[in-house]
Design brief:
Elements lengths: L5 H4 L30 H17 L14 E3 L5 E3 L4 H7 L7 E8 L9 E2 L18 E2 L2 H15 L6 E7 L7 H7 L1 H8 L6 E2 L9 H12 L3 E2 L3 E3 L5 H6 E2 L1 E4 L4 E7 L3 H4 L6 E3 L2 H14 L4 E7 L2 H10 L6 E3 L13 H4 L10 E5 L2 E6 L7 E9 L11 E6 L8 H18 L2 E5 L27 H17 L7 E5 L10 E4 H7 L6 E7 H13 L1 E2 L2 E2 L4 E4 L1 E13 L5 E15 L1 H5 L7 H7 L8 E3 L5 E7 H4 L13 E4 L22 H12 L10 E2 L7
Parallel strand pairs: 3-6, 6-7, 8-10, 12-14, 14-15, 15-17, 21-30, 27-32
Antiparallel strand pairs: 1-2, 3-18, 4-5, 9-13, 11-12, 16-17, 18-19, 20-22, 21-26, 23-30, 23-31, 24-25, 27-28, 28-29
Helix pairs in contact: 4-13, 6-7, 14-20
């Protein structure tokens, strides 16, 4: 699965992408954080007292620290406030004039889920997927906006030291039909109306590169903070001007520092002009800067993951009161209400409490896709310390019965209506299933684990063949030797029967722009060895590759090694044996002459006379995605690309252009695959033995 988007596709208890052992650590690894689950045992103790106090008071404790308000989810899924008016809240919260009461309202990892989504692995739009039972649908930005406004209105206006703050912890974009079609245009158009007062950058904000990110951030106009990235001022001038390290809220004497995961450098398309810094050093630096400015109350807004948030809180110098996180899609909750839990795995308390040298830091996160809106009520004294007895909060689940903000709903409907008819248009037919791997159209749900299939893919074969045909059709004067995509670029195969555009969007959801890149033969062999081993030097490679025009096999051996605990383990080692490339004479004569049906009939009986061993010193040009040509997954290192030519198509005018007119649009994956299906329909599966441990050619 394509790492740059794994988390957007899996919003179970844990992120499919996020793995502490695999993340690149730029900071010191220690394990000094205190088990935050210690507060869970106190909940039952307070439960009886809570029941009694409800009779006596308007507002009663509902957390381990004993706060002022009872907040539940009623049967309709709406927010139910026991304290209906501001005066009641103020009467229950007795704080000094120098303290502030702060309600932090937060989201993270929305991943372009504009409207309610279906609760499954893909999490696609219920409307666009024609889901009949809308009670199984959650989230939606119109509902989220309604809840945000309700939470703000409950606090704002009470007094000078009663405040609210609305934050987003990154990965607003990438995922689902809306992003596949509109890219960031639709998401940004709505996000800018949600009331966020600051956001940090997630790794997926970089997926279309710094130029697209700059346009997105200019369009939404939100304060953007990320202290651990250094943007080259000369190469990315506008982006450098947009992204700050922190934002100060003067009226609260409060600063918010942003952090972005350092694995963005290899899981996304940040490019050569973005540098990522050490987390701990960065936080300590900017806490001091804020303190020197007289700012004592400090919040971190991070997109580094829950486990790293906990470690970070235990390792930095005292001074950070709250960490509002994202990236790991973690569901944090301290209650037992099944309507709130909804079958999700609880990964920690809300808030998670970290004690570091007598300093308390509260950590919160709100899962992903907008299934929850988090809200943390906290009192901070003049030094930024948490006044523990007033701390409470909970994720609020956004259900099918949550009210909607009418303005946001109207905006979403415009994009939804444009998209609905377009994605349901028929493109062709498939005579048989086109499996992803083996005979499976869809891999089984691995519940958040990464499962790399190192084997040929009939669906991958079809997509890469489409790239070769498109290159021949559009550029007869240039030889494209082969095509290549990462295994994560394809999510599912196709079922036999009618093929509609929606099926292609589900199967190849990233819709990457296409480039032609040139490398030499040695680099190709090195890249394939990296794909098989999982490493290129010190860089992790977490994807297999699908190709047309290249055939390669490998040898396998089992070796013993000693793990970190000193235990003996066995590991399968794969090393490239032979790499063949289709002769240019064959390509020149017309790869299009080999129809999809011809390839299906030929199967693995490929004529070796049409192929030759890759020449180490010879240069080869191939069609691939921008993501791969920019160094995505470390399959190719950026320094290995000899020449790069991006493909444009000025005739590419689609329904999206009614909303976002193009100036010089790129050729993308959808166009190429759609064109291939239309011209070759009915489609058959192609299984040629392009990559395998055994012989590449049969007599």
């Amino acid at each position: 699965m394509k790492t740059k988007m794994n988390e957007q596709y899996h919003c179970s208890g844990s992120s499919n992408e996020y793995n502490v052992e695999q993340e690149t650590l730029n900071y010191r690894v220690e394990n000094r954080f205190i088990n935050s689950n210690k507060d869970r045992n106190l909940i039952k103790t307070f439960a009886l007292w809570k029941s009694l106090l409800i009779i006596m008071f308007l507002c009663v404790p509902n957390s381990v620290n004993g706060t002022y308000v009872q907040r539940n989810m009623n049967p309709s899924g709406l927010v139910d406030f026991a304290c209906k008016n501001r005066k009641a809240i103020k009467n229950q919260i007795k704080i000094r004039e120098s303290d502030i009461f702060l309600r932090i309202i937060h989201t993270n990892d929305i991943h372009s889920r504009l409207d309610p989504f279906e609760k499954n692995e893909q999490g696609e739009s219920c409307k666009l997927s024609d889901v009949a039972d809308r009670s199984t649908c959650f989230g939606g930005l119109a509902r989220i906006k309604y809840v945000i406004d309700e939470l703000k209105n409950e606090v704002d206006g009470i007094g000078n030291n009663f405040k609210s703050l609305v934050l987003d912890a990154g990965d607003q974009i990438q995922g689902g039909y809306y992003y596949s079609f509109y890219k960031g245009k639709a998401t940004g158009d709505i996000i800018k109306s949600m009331g966020f007062e600051a956001m940090t950058l997630g790794n997926h904000e970089f997926d279309q590169g710094p130029t697209s990110l700059t346009k997105y951030l200019k369009d939404i106009g939100l304060p953007v903070i990320s202290a651990d990235i250094i943007v080259n001022k000369t190469a990315e001038t506008e982006l450098n001007e947009i992204v700050d390290s922190y934002k100060i809220f003067e009226e609260m004497n409060l600063g918010v520092i942003g952090l972005t995961t350092n694995n963005t450098a290899w899981t996304s398309s940040s490019g050569p002009n973005i540098e990522f810094l050490d987390y701990v050093d960065t936080v300590n630096k900017y806490v001091k800067i804020l303190n020197d400015k007289g700012i004592q109350r400090i919040i971190l807004l991070t997109h580094i993951g829950y486990e790293f948030d906990k470690k970070l809180a235990s390792m930095i110098n005292p001074g950070v009161s709250v960490i509002v996180g994202g990236h790991s899609h973690s569901f944090l909750y301290s209650g037992d209400d099944q309507k709130v839990i909804g079958g999700n795995k609880i990964q920690g308390s809300y808030p998670t409490i970290i004690d570091n040298n007598s300093w308390t830091t509260c950590i919160v996160q709100a899962k992903c896709w907008g299934e929850y809106v988090g809200h943390l009520d906290i009192v901070l004294d003049s030094t930024g310390k948490v006044v523990n007895k007033y701390t409470s909060g909970s994720p609020i689940r956004i259900t099918s019965e949550t009210k909607e903000n009418k303005l946001i709903k109207k905006k979403v409907d415009i994009y939804q209506n444009h998209l609905y008819n377009y994605i349901n248009e028929k493109l062709g037919d498939s005579i048989l299933n086109i499996p992803l791997v083996d005979d499976m159209v869809r891999l089984p749900d691995t519940n958040g684990t990464t499962n790399i299939e190192i084997k040929e893919s009939p669906m991958g074969n079809m997509v890469t063949r489409a790239l070769m045909v498109a290159a021949k059709n559009s550029n007869n004067n240039q030889i494209i030797d082969f095509s290549l995509i990462s295994s994560g670029s394809i999510k599912i195969g196709l079922k036999k029967g009618p093929i509609i555009r929606k099926n292609i969007m589900e199967a190849t959801p990233f819709n990457d722009a296409i480039s032609y890149a040139t490398i030499n033969g040695t680099v190709l062999v090195d890249a394939l060895n990296g794909v098989l081993s999982g490493y290129r030097g010190n860089n992790t490679v977490r994807e297999f590759v699908f190709m047309d025009g290249v055939r390669f096999n490998w040898t396998e051996s089992i070796k013993e090694y000693i793990d970190e605990s000193g235990n003996s383990k066995l590991k399968t080692t794969r090393v490239v044996d032979r790499v063949y490339i289709r002769k240019r004479s064959t390509i020149s004569n017309g790869i299009k002459g080999i129809s999809n049906y011809d390839a299906y009939k030929i199967g693995s009986k490929v004529d070796i006379r049409e192929w030759e061993i890759v020449g180490p010193g010879k240069n080869y040009t191939f069609a691939t995605s921008d993501y791969i040509s920019n160094g995505g997954e470390n399959i190719f290192l950026k320094t290995e690309i000899i020449n790069l030519e991006r493909q444009y198509n000025k005739k590419n005018v689609e329904i999206r252009d009614l909303v976002d007119p193009p100036t010089n649009p790129r050729v993308n994956t959808y166009q190429i695959v759609e064109s291939y299906i239309k011209s070759e329909s009915p489609i058959y599966p192609i299984s040629e033995g392009r990559s395998q441990p055994g012989p590449l050619f049969k007599n």
